[in-house]
Amino acid sequence: MERKNAWKKYPQGKREAVFAFAEEYKKFISDCKTERECVTELIAQAEKAGFEDLNKVVAEGRALNTGDKLYAKNMDKTLALFVIGRQPLNAGMNILGAHIDSPRLDLKQVPLYEDTELALFDTHYYGGVKKYQWVTLPLALHGVVVKKDGTKVIVNIGEKEDDPVFGISDLLIHLASEQMDKKAAKVIEGENLDVLVGSIPFENEEDKEKAKDAVKTNVLNILKEQYDIEEEDFLSAEIEVVPAGKARDYGFDRSMIMGYGHDDRVCAYPSFAAIVEAGVCDKTTVCLLVDKEEIGSVGATGMQSRFFLYVVAEIMEAMGGYSQVMFNRAMMNSKVLSSDVSAAYDPLYASVTEKKNGAYFGNGLVFNKYTGSRGKSGSNDANPEYMAELRRIMDDNDVSFQTSELGKVDQGGGGTIAYILANYNMSVIDSGVAVLNMHAPWEIISKVDLYEAKLGYTAFLKEA
Known about the structure:
There is one protein chain. By secondary structure, the chain is of the alpha/beta class. The protein has two domains: 6-102 and 260-463, Zn peptidases (Aminopeptidase), CATH 3.40.630.10; 105-243, Aminopeptidase i, Domain 2. Helix content is 29%, strand content 24%. Strand 11 and strand 12 (256-259) form a beta hairpin. Helix 1 packs across helix 13 and helix 8 (262-278) crosses helix 13. It is globular.
């Protein structure tokens, strides 16, 4: 069973929409490399599109009606958007769920130290990474420092042309004979992913106390003068180390995008675009963008948090009255696309993929009936009735789509937020965009797959 390449729908001269949406997306992932940055930017775009803060509506005691557009944020790292539909909420919602966290390095709470007159930041990697991929790259610092009085200092260093960048050193090949004999998992150890940040010593040698770690002292002086950050402020900071630089067109034909954080912002951004474009639908539509998926969806900002349930309850109350029975019906009658990326077939590593059930660049939106690992462990296995409905919706709207598994059965596997939403008895399936180099600092996607994802997500919100 062969799927057609989606580019064939867009011959030369008819690709403007595909490339225009790719430019929007490139700007988004270039500017938004942390969860907080994603939430801040998408709220700004949502407000321009007429969405209101749910907290304001609740505080004013206003009733919600068909067509109302709302957003709710959680700790600046999770975002839920709603457009109230024509049917009552207990008829269910059509939900697009994606995550906006990506693999990276986080600064430890006591990060700065000096060794042999070099100043470094100590890090702890976040999510599943191949540690050797993070060395010898230009890196940037993104995040927030919160002072004891509650003042927030936004950190974004390494993205502007005149900014410094940072990096992690590697052993020169001339001295690397022992290193080259190690397994890939051990070539670079986690405790050696320390970021080099300075090498000039503090000039006042008369101050013997400061002269002990003079390079560290000089870095602290720069942080104080330029960013108003003191060493103890790192105790209440959240600073992420990410690849420096913008997303770029990839390939002679500019058909692909290389960027940091495609997993999973390549699904989050078209999900956001879809809820804006879909307008008012029969069912209430939802775009749910969450944190912490890369480490198990845990914590107050992950999908396992009760934040989404609390927000739905608030909306139900504002629509005429909450009851547990009606709330249960709203959840059970909901349908979800758990929008997360899939592994693209790579001819250089063909042995890990079963070709008939792989995802291919240019073949459109990917549906994974199940993820998990080996014996489907940890997966949400969508029922065939739901898959049949989605096939109809995609075909009726001329959306290019394909089906896939995450590699060969015994090769490995992975998980998404799908199983968590399925716990509420919703119909859920994984659906997203195929990615090369998944979890690497620089990942690759196809522009036409990105565009077909937006079309597919919009059709789902309108017709599911």
